[in-house]
Amino acid sequence: MSALVTFDHATLAYGRRVVLSDLTFQIPEGDFLGLVGPNGSGKTTILRAILGTLEPTAGTVTRRPELRFGYVPQRDQVDYNFPLRVLDVVLMGRYDRVGIGRRPKRDDRDRALAALDAVGIRELAMEPLTRLSGGQKQRTLIARALVGEPNMLVLDEPTTGMDLVSTTQILGLVRELHERSGLTVLMVSHALNEIANYVTRIALVQEGSFRIGAVDEIVNERTLSEVYGIPVEVDSFDGHRIVLARRGAAVVKPGERR
Amino acid sequence: MIEAILLFRDALYGALVIALVCSALGVYVVLRRIVFVGASLAQMSTLGIAISFWLAGVGVAGVITTRPVILSLLATLLGVVFFATGMRRARIPADARIGVAYVVAGALAILFIAKAAVGEAHDIFLQGNILGITRGDWLVLLGVSVPVLLVHVLFYKEFLFISFDQETARTLGYRVERWTLLLYLTIGLSIAFAMQFAGLMLVFDFLVLPAVTGLLLARGMGGVFAWAIGAGLAAAVIGFSLSVPFDLPTGPAIVTVSGALVILAWLLRRLRER
Fold first, then answer.
1. Contact B117, B55 (CB under 8 A)
2. Which residues contact B209 (CB under 8 A, 6 or more apart)?
């Protein structure tokens, strides 16, 4: 499959402060990639480079022409004081297609309703956004990302601040969207345990290091212990991977073999 | 009473135009949480007026002293560019920069006014001189306000999107900084012209209180704009009508009515939520 986004020895920096250097990887069409790392590790920097809002200072980041992102921001980036209905918010995903100075038409409205249907909250279309639960708000933002008919769905920390039920439902929904239509998905998260059981590939960012591969290649005791610098245990329960730090274990420096 | 009001009808029309444009734009000011950007822009506009008065006092002749709006507009537009484009890159927090601009502009305005030869200048820049509005003045106000409002009608969805969620707008190709600059320009333009007549307190009132009333009463964005404009116009008419026959200062009378409408709206909302 052809790549939607290609990093070729890319260095990402803010001014003189280099965050990550020499990144080389691709996001192929149909990928279901999790970008994982702790807060401040550079996930958002990579995300901005993928979206094209940050240019590399060296190397290249190329996007396939006409590539269209469906972006789901972190929930706290959206201002819920605005008295908007769910349908109004979803329609925003069509605004660039509608054109500057023009109003959405009936077709846009129908597509917005279909997107709400796809995420299972069509009946909430006329409800004020402020009245929704955290999970429903996230579904609204996913519907808004879908209504623009993207090639790649990009979700930034989609489960932050959610309870177990909502987290499971949102991650399940994203996997369903990927499986149903082969939609390329990039999910950014600090919670390895949460997304390791949903995505097919993982990119792990930690203190300037970057690794990417199939889930099994990344989510194993040796790799994670090297990356995190502490002994890590990867267990399996009922088909689900569980990543744990070994209790009372000494810290291992990155790159050091145990 | 009606004869007294009719005597100042041009002033009333002026107040209504200022109420209309500031109340509508105030919805963005409140929702974007840039209330103090509005206050700082008004203060910078005041500084422009103060410099104009001072220049007149030291004998500088010409259009910049006979038309204080020119320096007022210039100072406000400088503020607009400063707030709209400089905030993202600065290491200093945005609210601190707003605070610096507000207090320095305010202090400089007082210094220039203190040395201005125009005796009533101090009162004018604080309270405005809304009763002094002539037919020509309110027609100029209308000439500025109508294009500003048309820009807002035309680009409603763009202003809404970049205000609600600028990261997503950016990923969809919106040049968020340019749209923000345009939004701030319309706000700055309205403030600069309104400040000539309404004064700092009344302009700040129209930028904030009607929008708060709208947000308390409305369930959707359209409703917020409608209620905000309605509350602004009602405050202007009621405040004006009370101030003329009872010989009250017009600006504070309008502000007091605006405050009463906010309280009324809050009570109505509480009742509705029960």
1. no
2. B26, B231, B235, B255, B258, B259, B261, B262
Q: Is the pLDDT of residue B52 over 70?
A: yes
- Chain B residues bordering chain A (beta-carbon distance below 8 Å): 31, 154-155, 157-158, 160-161, 163-165, 167-174, 215, 218-221, 223-224
d(CA B45, nearest CA chain A) in Å: 29
Please name the helix (run of DSSP H) or strand (run of DSSP E) that holds residue A35, with its range, or none.
Answer: strand A32-36
Check A85 against B223: CB less than 8 A apart. Answer: no
pTM metric for this prediction: 0.86
Partners of B120 in the β-ladder: none
Rounded-to-integer distance, Cα B142 and Cα B135, Å:
11
| pLDDT of res. B90 | 60
ipTM: 0.85
Q: Which residues of A136-169 are buried (b: 16+ CB within 10 A; e: fewer)?
A: bbbbbbbbbbbbbebebbbbbbbbbebeeebbeb
Three-point CA angle B132, B107, B181, nearest 5°: 75
What pLDDT, in 10s, does the model give residues B96-141?
888 888 999 989 988 888 887 665 555 655 566 788 888 998 999 9
